[in-house]
Amino acid sequence: MSRPVANLVLLLAGAIWGMGFIAQSTAMDAIGPILFIGLRFLVACIFIAPFAWFEARRAAEPIRKSDLRGFVFIGLALFFGMVLQQFGLLLTTVTNSGFLTGLYVVMVPILSLLLLRQAPHPIVWPAVVLAFTGIWLLSGGDLVALNTGDFLTIACALAWSAQVILVGRFASSSGRPIALSLVQFAICAALGLVCAIALEDIVLADIMAALPEILFAGIFASGVAFTLQVVGQRYTTAPQAAIFLSTEALFAAVFAAILLAERIPPIGYLGGVFIFSAILIVEAGPAILRRNRSSMAKDI
């Protein structure tokens, strides 16, 4: 798969995730956030299991233990990200959640330094300032307006950053992207259902009321989109993958406006532009600087 095709695959994943924000938000009118996580990933496991079995039949060798451990860490990062995002959606809007989740694009290079000892490009630091200025504008130009749900969503972005970096590391080295998806889904399903049994009320009628959202989130926003992410990241870098995946924020805002009649203040749109400008700077800035240096060298 070429890098442009991989990026298109990641863009499709971002679009599906954007629609998934709607399902995540409306499902909690009927069931608790942790139960929704457990059920959506249980559906994702059932959906993806035949594909994982087919991949295993074609594999030349079994999964290495080191890769399997990596799959487990990816699943844990995904679970904590989903929990933070679901609880955040109880307290903030779909639009805000979509935009703030996109901050993981800025966080990915920072976590790459902390986890992989890969120093980020110097252009990352002004991008971080620009992104958090965007958050301030998105809140209406008043930091007090940021509520608990917004801060939970920012923490969610941190978990997504770890997940994106780890997927980039293990999707290529293992050569088993579908198995990776199945393991991370199984971990989220198991942890979600166990925690839901302990902490939330489980009523069959409520589950049936949220069944359309559970099926959409399980099959498309989880089974399809997360697998597209894993497959796409085998052929591109983590920062480049993050820029295409972050389009979920744009799609979330569009779908929220169409389906939920959500609106953000006029200054919030400028905040969204700032956040996406930071994302673009992190992704495109280094390449532009390299071209400028190359041009200057030729002129000399």
Automatic annotation (TrEMBL):
Where does the record say this protein resides? Cell membrane
Q: Which part of the chain is the EamA domain?
A: 7-139, 148-282
Q: Which SUPFAM superfamilies match?
A: Multidrug resistance efflux transporter EmrE
* Record-annotated membrane-spanning stretches: 37-56, 68-91, 97-116, 123-139, 151-171, 178-199, 211-231, 243-261, 267-289
Q: Which UniProt keywords apply?
A: Cell membrane, Membrane, Transmembrane, Transmembrane helix
How does the record say this protein sits in the membrane?
Answer: Multi-pass membrane protein
This protein's source sits in the domain of life called Bacteria
Q: Provide the Gene Ontology terms for cellular component.
A: plasma membrane
Q: Which PANTHER family match?
A: EAMA DOMAIN-CONTAINING PROTEIN, OS03G0707200 PROTEIN-RELATED
Stated name of the protein: DMT family transporter
Species of provenance: Pseudohoeflea suaedae
